[in-house]
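[DERIVE STRUCTURE TOKENS]
===
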Amino acid sequence: MYSPHMQLNVWNLNYQCLAAVIDLGLQRHVAISAGISQHEQDMRTRIFWTVFTIDRTIASMMGRPIGLRDEACELRLPQLPTDPELATNPDHANGRSHSMAISIHLFKLAKLNSEIKYVANSVVRDVPTYAYPAIRDVLAWQSSMMQQLDDWLASISQIQPPNDYITLLCQLRCLSVKMLLLRPSPAIPRPTAAVLTACHASARQSLRLYEQLYKSDLMLYDWITLHGVVYSTITALYCTRAVREIAQRVNPEDLMEYMSISLSILSATGEHWSDAKRARDILEDVGKSTIRLLRQSREASAQGQAMDLAESNVRSLSVSVGGDTQVNGLMGGAENDCTMSGLAQHTDLFSDMQLDFGSFSELQQHQELFGDTVNIDDMMRNLFDDFIPSGQSFY
């Protein structure tokens, strides 16, 4: 989160913004009777939500706690420009209206993001009486949040974004929050296969959208883009290795295609952020390892099917000949290798695809990326170690 060229630290910037919001009281609703005009009040609200969104974005990107809690704020949304305001500058009326509508829509997504950060990272279900009501059924809450995100995504078309870039941007933001909701978390450390399948679909769709931006020369090589590409790739690879059904369904060629998208974007990003090349190299190794594992599993599966077919043919032959003696003579005792006990090595073709990434010998050189626990936040932080300043450069 640090650019040595700009001497700007995002953590420090975020802190200063939050401090200014609190010092100026922007998180509170100030009545017009206090001597503040409606326009000034609305501008205060817009600034507050901008800082609110930045804080939630950084906290989600780097797996950090939220800086300003929801219950400390009066979460009123800005108002759309009124007809008299638009009439004062009719040339920009449509643009102002659409831009504000999109901003408000993204502010609503930031609030959903905030709730996910609260609940998904809560390890104690019995909360104090002064806190929000406890979520007793976290899986029902997860399903409800997923429905709210789907509704938010579907309502983008009703706002009529001014261009395709804004539409893609909104979709990418929503997919990022979906992955935050569906991935393993302290509240749901081991999601179901169905949940991880939905998470995998969101990751792949996110990479497709980044590919559209990249091919259309609309890609903005900022921190959010860099994080989004790496995050989507890590999530897709994790789900592929964690869920047997996904591993059985995904073709190695398809995975190679998605890895190509990710690596191409990261290579282009490396021209702006030289340290991004390290993340690209690590992801390339992880992708190659996953593709190799998928191919080995398919080869083992094909061998197992061939042996099953051979065993079936042997059994059919034994029935037609009328005795096991003839079969033994024909096979030379090979039936012992064709029985189900001989297929023991193929009974769990995806036994290596467990949640512990540290077991893969191909990744020993990147052991710091995949530890003994499933924590995608830790994975992301390890990938971005080079970006986090230390010592005096932090200030």
Notes: Confidence is low (pLDDT under 50) at residues 324-373, 389-395. The radius of gyration is 27 Å. The chain has 15 helices and two strands.
